[in-house]
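Task card 7
Instruction: Convert sequence to structure tokens.
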Amino acid sequence: MSNLLAENQRMNNEQKSCRVTLEPSLQAQAALWSPAKRIEMARKLERWARQLIISAAILQADSAPPTPPRLKRLPIRKLRLN
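Output:
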């Protein structure tokens, strides 16, 4: 029980002293990266995110049912010629 309390207190102290908090899965990936490497990876991930959003929009548009063709409205002058 005392080990558990000591561990909780140690974790709380680490959290208070840590200036940056990341999601656990990201922290596991970026733990050994330098600041320059983190910036490089952030830029790469932003680029990939934009590409994924654009490709998803294109795929959604392609999978939507096609719009039915519409007849073009003619001006009144051309209608009178018929």
